[in-house]
Amino acid sequence: MKSYRKELWFEIPRRRDFINITPKIEDCLKESGIKEGLLLCNAMHITSSVFINDDEPGLHADFEKWLEALAPEKPYSRYKHNTHEDNADAHLKRTLMGREAVVAITQGKLDFGPWEQIFYGEFDGKRRKRVLVKIIGE
Amino acid sequence: MKSYRKELWFEIPRRRDFINITPKIEDCLKESGIKEGLLLCNAMHITSSVFINDDEPGLHADFEKWLEALAPEKPYSRYKHNTHEDNADAHLKRTLMGREAVVAITQGKLDFGPWEQIFYGEFDGKRRKRVLVKIIGE
Amino acid sequence: MKSYRKELWFEIPRRRDFINITPKIEDCLKESGIKEGLLLCNAMHITSSVFINDDEPGLHADFEKWLEALAPEKPYSRYKHNTHEDNADAHLKRTLMGREAVVAITQGKLDFGPWEQIFYGEFDGKRRKRVLVKIIGE
Predict the structure, then answer these.
(1) What is the pTM of this model?
(2) What pLDDT does A51 receive?
(3) Which of A91, B42, B85, B138 could link B100 by a cystine bridge, Cβ 3.0 to 4.6 Å?
(4) In B, which residues are within 8 Å of A57 by CB distance?
């Protein structure tokens, strides 16, 4: 069994954004040399997400509006977590979008359906944060 | 390390439905011959889900009503994604229900608790769509 | 390839609670002797969760209030599942929080960011329930 590990770093200038990281993940997979196995990609921070969906700006605007309706950022005082921090909503939004994606590796490729793309979802940006890529297989 | 891959195809006649795919997954596992490892089962489309819950029709009706309350299908105009499409709600519903399940394989069986069953959740049906089963182990 | 399996049992005296199980998972990992691989930790019951977030009591109070707003426990009659049972809300809450976490194992440790901790989320307690830990790797 082979294993591979890489950290991807981000510094998103806005509080919230969605970044298509599929090309970076494909680079990791190539570098790993693994042909058959499983790939785990997870946010290493608890106010951001890794998720799989469509790379369509209208949908991303819908996600932003929907997440704000289900877990509003403000007023900050609505959350008990917000004493020294103001990011309770980011913990909730990340819960809705998910921490991680597990992807099958087949014949050296991400084994994806036609529209699947991997995104980094930032909900408390303006600072350096990380995503972990771990691949195991042969 | 052994690896196994299979696509399961569905064509659900309604827009939304939940299908118990546990027997099909068990068939895959038998076919793989893998006794110890991990099984990934994921929707290959971004408007459907794979999730684990109870096979109880009342609960499934509750899921349907709950998902419609949190991410309503209509009016289609409420979503920016719905220009050439009408399925933005399906992307959101799938986000709530999840893309994938990872299941432990122990002694050649799905290592499940007493009520765990795997479902395909369709949120934009009436066409052919796929689920991926990938198993790695020994 | 090595594999390891352990059940962790809980009997939470309240209907709902969040328990930090990171030290127990670390014990499992040590016991397994696995240095590189993937660890799956999942609820074996469909009314409880395993998820990764922050060990901060204010945030946990926010989660409780938020889950009750999105999937209220009462009135029990609002759910079709609640004929012989009263736990439909627990199935929905567990769906929001997730069934499982997959964690990278690197150099014999949980490969975590600075604040990641693993929690057992109970939504229908007062009885004995289980979590599964499965590790594969080398």
Answers:
(1) 0.98
(2) 98
(3) B42
(4) 80
